[in-house]
Amino acid sequence: MTPRGIKISDIAYVRLRAPDLDTMEQFLLDFGMVRSERTANRLYMRGTGPAHHIHITEKGESAFVSLAYYAASEEDLHRVAGFPDAVSGVHDVDEPGGGKRVLLKEPNNGFNIEIVHGIRALPELPVEYRSPTWDEDVMRTVGNPGRLRFGPAHVRRLSHGVISSPHMEQTLAWFSQWLGLLCTDIFYIGSRDNPVGGFYRLDRGEELVDHHVLNCYRNPRSGFQHASFVVEDVEDLLIGHSHLMRTDKYTHIRGVGYHPPGGQIYDYWLNPWGTMHELYLPTQRFDSTAPANIMPAPGAHNPTSDFANTITEAAAHGIGD
Ligand SMILES: [Fe+2]
Q1: Could you read off the pLDDT of 72-82 as tens digits, one per residue?
Q2: Whole-model pTM above 0.85?
Q3: Looking at the domain assignment, is residue 243 inside a domain?
């Protein structure tokens, strides 16, 4: 009997590899994350939300290692272990935060996918300042330099990961069949029978979710394009943008801007090894009944653009190998 897929409950973390964990940590601090744990060979970063970590870096040659998603229950994790593309059984995660895991090898591109459950949650972190509104606090604090807001954004959580593939339809079909993702939008170029990108969201029934937890777009190269991190509000995103500009250390690739399909405010930056990270603020949320749309691709999603060709190759070897 063919095993049934599950409905993942959320994206958990992205796992990258980089040769210098100090430099990676400084970039992620400037980007708006907080250190959760650091070992000799791995860096775990969190946001202000309860997730123990949302970004892992393993020490090694720069690469994309995996995307991780939460199973809703341990029972689901056992079901994943029976998938044809499972490459491990259910096992304890020997990393900070613990939990249990099954590893999958996505068959169209060979991407490593981690399905996790039971990673320890942490107390949420206070957001240490809220930007004052112009007409209230700022006017009250004229003459007080403390009114000036500088510093990184406050990343709260991970929203989505984006991958490129020459096998876009099959890749999206795999995520849909096995992990229960729903189609929100398909972009095409020229005519509707030429789709170039698909945006898929979580299925959490009546609960509202982001426009997409996964975007896969057509490209001759398979790889990882970016991960996207949700900040507090518009002002927080702009303060974070200003901070990253002021460091004069990182490459800004696109933004601040607005994607109409999901009402998303974005700002894209490259880490010191050229892997894209997005500061993000969704202004629209979707339940499982929202119908899929097909629409012409906005220009920047043209697969020949630099933005679409900023791709980080998948690691030749797997997690922690
Ligand atoms: Fe994004």
Answers
A1: 999 999 999 99
A2: yes
A3: yes
